[in-house]
């Protein structure tokens, strides 16, 4: 039997990053049982935590990069271990030594994009507001009701630009006085932070905060749960306190208060997917459902893994940028769950989820055709 | 000739009715043991329980670990001992409202909830139960079977009296029906009974309210409350028990089929920091699960049993051996993994469990039945208890005790015994009860023997001129004997034996009901000898000897025929041969009984001193219980007696001179306060 020498550095880095709770692990294995990875292949979070506790992490392996930070293990751990913080600390070591093994390699390009253009897709910063051409969208000025923080995917990705358009139209219809920052907007930095790049996250956050302050921003509406999570839970580390509200919450308020009227209908069988960063990370389960229930003709059903048990799409933790072979994609399982729930439309509100589900829905049989929509697109149809 | 009833003895002095020495709150095994020890030490005890009968959680168990003794067989004789003891007054269906006063002088206000039955008139005949039209889920059987709105809590209950469930009685809810009143032969039913408040004056209180099991229904843990075939360990204990919902057949709730594959999930509600759970380990679940596995395999040897755990805690006496006994059984797997329940098959209602392995990834397996090994919580309404008795609780909600004396609570004169201290097994509950007796004894030593009374037995009948007239009772012992031996055949055989006047059978001979049956038979048929075909004399011989004495015959006219340990337990696969052997054993015992002679017991005086062998912490606590004497005892262990006494003498002289020549403090002394300022205090 080999004797292994622990790498003290690993243990110290994790502790410094706030991952000290890993020492509470009593190897019960529940993290493995609930982790979505184990539905497609063998993956042991228990092993990763245990190795980390003894400083035996193998940084060159892809294993510690698999985690999508979906938080299912954190919520189910009987000992209160924070696997996400420990995992991100391990990745920090990897990031420092520029070790991005195998399928993780694309992250290096993303780092470059974020550094130079402030978005993860490699689009030009000057063109960030192009999606708003021809739409009733103004530049944000002090005194406006809300800042609409569009986000990288909605600004540059062709499919997600449709969602940005739908969102802007709805806000306009409701008479909301909103504006965008356009090229002054930078990536929220949530996902790159989860790949261990603390420095880049800080830079992006400071840039955004500076712009918010300069523009006198008080209330921010976001379309991505990742932006929501970052602004609500991580930006306060910089001692700022902006009010953040998620788009489905905001639209729900607009409908309930009568500012937005849903005169039309959306007569389809719909099922709602809870994005990890909206549901498990931030506890928002009811408002999106409330909103959908107000749409005439809409039949809402629930998939087997709903609310706290929602099955991750596989995009969090920076994995949206990484290669995942088809047989390892959770989104393939999720679209099938939507079909099993009798749905024609799978609705959600996260750019990563929509991207992944759209891709996986192409693998369904013709008879099981499933349409993937953002919640704002449904509301738009029901106006 | 009238036989004496074996129920609660009436008190002679009504003026003294409410004055006692100790109040024991909680009539489970710990409270019962405390009451018995206190009564035998010369104190008058009130034993109060909020349930309709004594017994607590132990009465719901089938067997107890690690000996796999029949639980009721151990508890019910204790019920009868309490009932027969002239120094114990059993007060059931009663709760404590208020406690005033201090150690040595407590005034306790209690409320007796209305049973709607006049206890003194009820004979426990069950006729009202037969006629009652309202069916309710049986609370004793964990609501897995039905009972009636009026019923006896369980058949070996002491007191053997029915009670009416207020919430479901048609008369009490809607003014309709009164069938039970009509059929009761002794007019014992009073549907207009009101709660009765009364006061007791006692010198000390022993709290033994026990525990409650963790309720997985609150969070629907592992599908409990949503999936039919997910049950708790206490539910399963009732299912295993011969007095349970299926009379000892292990059947699962959904379709009453015999489960072939059962999973046990450990640590339900325990060892977690998640909201709603307990962070501690509940101590007994590992071993009780092993017990359930062994018993379930007894019922069905082909059963497939899987136990999902995080580690096995086998810390007590014989626990490791017990674990290995369970582990060695065929088709029993201990799998180290916490699990989730992934889904329920809508057609078969089978439950699928998802678990992790070290090298084979995460697997899923289907089971017929899932048993949740629930942890132990503090008793219900523990905050109320804490307020009423003005005692502190610890951070888990259990009684706060002193580390080196876990029987003391935060209030002088109020002691704690049993699982209210924290999760513990039956032996520990009993030991702490005896410990409470010792401490109460210290506190109330001056009152010892003042209020207590001696047991008075009826005069012994002179049977020297009589022919032997033997009574034979054959016991089923639940299913322990009844499942193997053909009891009616043995009874019939016994009645053909020479000198046998009467033969009968009983489900649990050690219950109150049967004690009465025996006493009646002895009276009516003029029996002068008794043979009981049941378990080992080691368990209940004293109880039945006592029953004979109560019935007026010499206690040594009692003979026990062991058809359990010597027959049904060892020949459980050979029913016919076992029945034959039981008959042979009974024949031998009857023959011996014919030749028995009466024997008399007498008392011998002894020195009232005790020898404590071993002066470690246990020995010292036992011997003295106070620190001053302990230090002298330590010196004694190093030197001989004369040196020891010289040390004591020298200490006394030194202290005398110090006291003589010590000056009274005069003037001022200084004190430095936390903020650094110096404060002068006048003294002298």
How is this structure best summarized?
The complex is a heterodimer of chains A (383) and B (684). With 383 residues, chain A is an alpha/beta fold. Chain A has helices spanning 8-16, 30-34, 45-53, 72-76, 83-96, 106-117, 152-156, 158-173, 190-194, 198-214, 225-234, 247-256, 286-293, 330-340, 351-361, 375-381; strands at residues 138-139, 146-149, 178-180, 219-222, 243-246, 269-272, 299-301, 345-348, 371-374.
Would you mind describing this structure in some detail?
With about 375 residues, chain A is of the alpha/beta class. Chain A contains 16 helices and nine strands. In chain A, helix 8 crosses helix 16, helix 12 crosses helix 13 (about 285-295) and helix 14 packs across helix 15 (about 350-360). The longest helix of chain A is centred in the middle third of the chain and has 17 residues, at about 200-215. The mean pLDDT of chain A is about 95. In chain B, a hairpin with a 2-residue loop joins strand 6 and strand 7. In chain B, helix 1 (about 30-40) packs parallel to helix 2, helix 6 packs parallel to helix 7 and helix 12 crosses helix 13. Chain B is globular, with a radius of gyration of 29 Å. Chain B starts with about 20 loop residues before the first strand and ends with a strand. Residues about 1-15 and about 625-630 of chain B have low confidence and may be disordered. Chains A and B meet through helix 2 of A and strand 20 of B.
